[in-house]
UniProtKB/TrEMBL annotation:
The chain crosses the membrane at residues 39-64, 70-94, 136-159, 165-184. It is found in: Membrane. It comes from Ursus americanus (American black bear). This is Pecanex-like protein. Belongs to the pecanex family. It is a multi-pass membrane protein. InterPro entries: Pecanex. Keywords: Membrane, Transmembrane, Transmembrane helix. The keyword Transmembrane helix applies. GO terms for cellular component: membrane.
């Protein structure tokens, strides 16, 4: 190969810069191939950090001595369960409305595959873009319950007083707390909001929506080992 030939041409580089962060973060599309309204990114950030808000509320009550650890897990899990159902029913409502999202005509599929015409912050086309929704009602219920369970167990696992016993140092507990909640947010977003388009998987072949369950499966594995040990 000639040294003057780039590894990635402009089209592939733009596609990679969009898809790689989406895959790592579990679904949020923070880089689009066109100029999208700011509220598209703000809404995604709010949805991404929502598990941390509910878990943070429970953690605060636990640290203040108001709730026991198991009540803290139940509170955070219950709030996440309610939020998950709210998100799914919002998506279902948007899909059932008569107004549809119109695709803009594009000539470059790699660079502009996500291009939509947005009209408002909470419009139908915005909701459909952010929250595509599930194919089956059973998955809507199952994924919502799994989201609540994962948030509850994750909150219990990441309680500062508990993880401090694991490392015996404040620095280790802080790092585990931050990266642990980042991992939980990634798993929750993939499960109930929007799943990343995996580079080696054709979404049309995922008939039963197994892909959104993969990240939560890894999280459940690590949390279950800790809970079994305790």
């Amino acid at each position: 190969m000639s040294p003057d030939v780039p590894l990635l041409n402009d089209y592939k580089q733009d596609f990679f810069l969009k898809r790689f962060p989406q895959t790592v973060l579990g679904g949020p599309r923070f880089k689009l191939g066109y100029c999208a309204p700011p509220y598209i990114y703000v809404n995604q950030i709010i949805l991404f950090l929502m598990p941390w808000v509910w878990g943070g509320l429970g953690t605060l009550l636990y640290q203040l001595g108001i709730l026991e650890d198991y009540y803290t897990a139940s509170l955070s899990g219950g709030l996440m369960l309610f939020a998950a159902f709210f998100i799914q029913f919002t998506s279902l409502y948007a899909r059932n409305k008569s107004m549809t999202v119109e695709r803009m005509l594009t000539t470059d599929i790699l660079a502009e595959e996500d291009e939509h015409d947005f009209t408002s912050c909470a419009g139908t086309e915005t909701i459909k873009f952010l929250i595509p929704g599930k194919k089956y009602v059973a998955n809507t219920v199952l994924h919502s319950f799994l989201a609540g369970l994962m948030c509850g167990l994750g909150t219990w696992y990441l309680l500062p007083k508990r993880i401090s016993l694991l490392y015996g140092s404040t620095g280790g507990a802080v790092l585990l707390f931050l990266f642990g909640w980042m991992t939980l947010c990634i798993g929750e977003y993939s499960l109930i909001v929007n799943t990343a388009a995996e580079t080696a998987t054709f979404q049309t072949q995922d008939t039963y929506e197994i892909t959104p369950l993969m990240r939560p499966l890894y999280i459940f594995f690590f949390v279950s080992v800790d809970l079994a040990h305790r």
